[in-house]
Specification:
It is built from ten helices and ten strands. The protein is an alpha/beta fold and 283 residues long. The protein has a domain of 197 residues: Vaccinia Virus protein VP39 (Rossmann fold). The strands form two sheets. The chain has an eight-stranded mixed β-sheet, with helices on both faces. α1 packs across α4 and α4 crosses α5. The relative contact order is 0.16. The structure holds S-adenosylmethionine. The site of S-adenosylmethionine (SAM) has 19 residues, from loops. S-adenosylmethionine (SAM) binds next to loops. Its EC number is 2.1.1.266. Belongs to the RlmJ family. Specifically methylates the adenine in position 2030 of 23S rRNA. GO terms for molecular function: 23S rRNA (adenine(2030)-N(6))-methyltransferase activity; RNA binding.
């Protein structure tokens, strides 16, 4: 297990992933009833942007750094608002000192009645995450294989909520494991929202994954993809996507409307682009 998210936290891929995550949570929070968030590959929760890892790559500057320096249109500003409010909450204002990972975004946007199961396999990272949430009785932290978590924690008692699966893609076969996770989640928690992150390196592998995920039979399934350079070449990650099952009804349309502007903001060259795929739609 070599992957450490501290080198990448706040990069362009985190911007799309976390802004979508925050929009889903804002949508779940519209009803008073509590929901549960199950995060199978949670990381450490909060990332110090002055830490050695962040300084060494500087990746956050091309992601959250650019967004914070920009003057977005009203439409993009609205779309980013839940994520930006989580950023402000963990920083105690407009300074950008720490970057919230998926657990910290979830708890920053959550309420007393919401519950969290965060899982992280790396023992040191799991200990960091446990310490972060020591005082928060809404949170449980586990440390097992994240795909076991998806099966073991579903369905949640609340019968509403979100499952996030965000693996590091450092071992072969990750797309196959993700496809199985989509099928497992559909079987155990058919009405729940599911969000999966994936890198866009091998476009054929992504297409095969999306086709396999569609086979799980979710009535509504979308994917949101963005690349800051033309994918396919060697070098750093060029693009990434999120697959969302049972998304909020407006997510595909509102994301499609702001994606060109967000892509211009994050582009590294003129090969940048983005798209929203509607893989299953029940009208
Ligand atoms: N979801 C986090 C966020 O958005 O802030 C980032 C997660 S990072 C991309 C992937 C994490 O998965 C790493 O912290 C890594 O240690 C952990 N990991 C690797 N293999 C795992 C496994 N089999 N089960 C659970 N976690 C794993």
């Amino acid at each position: 297990m070599n992957y450490r998210h501290a080198f990448h936290a706040g990069n362009f891929a985190d911007v799309l992933k976390h802004a979508v995550l925050a929009r889903i949570l804002a949508y779940l929070g519209r009803k008073d009833a509590g929901y549960r968030v199950i995060d199978s590959h949670a990381g450490i929760g909060l990332y110090d942007l002055a830490a050695d890892e962040a300084l060494r790559t500087g990746e956050w500057r091309g992601g959250v750094g650019r967004v914070r320096a920009a003057r977005p249109s009203p439409a993009l500003g609205d779309w980013l608002a839940p994520w930006l409010s989580a950023l402000r909450a963990v920083n105690g204002g407009d300074d950008l000192l720490v970057y919230p990972g998926s657990p910290a975004i979830a708890t920053a946007l959550g309420r007393l009645q919401d519950r969290y199961h965060f899982n992280e396999l790396h023992p040191q990272d799991a200990a960091t995450l446990t310490a972060l949430y020591a005082g928060d009785r809404r949170v449980r932290v586990g440390s097992e294989d994240g795909y076991v978590t998806v099966r073991a924690q579903l369905p949640p008692r609340e019968r509403r909520g979100l499952v996030i699966v965000d693996p590091p893609f450092e071992e072969a076969g990750e797309f196959d494991r993700l496809t199985r996770a989509v099928h497992d989640a559909r079987k155990r928690f058919a009405t729940g929202c599911l969000m999966i992150w994936y890198p866009i390196k091998d476009v054929a592998a992504v297409d095969a994954f999306l086709a396999g995920a569609a086979g799980a039979g979710y009535p509504r399934l979308i994917a949101i993809e963005q690349w800051v350079r033309q994918p396919g070449g060697d070098g750093p990650l060029a693009g990434a996507g999120v697959l969302v099952a049972n998304p909020p009804f407006t997510l595909a349309d509102e994301t499609e409307a702001i994606l060109p502007e967000l892509t211009r903001l994050l582009a590294e060259d003129d090969g940048a682009g983005g798209r929203v795929l509607r893989l299953a739609e029940d009208g």
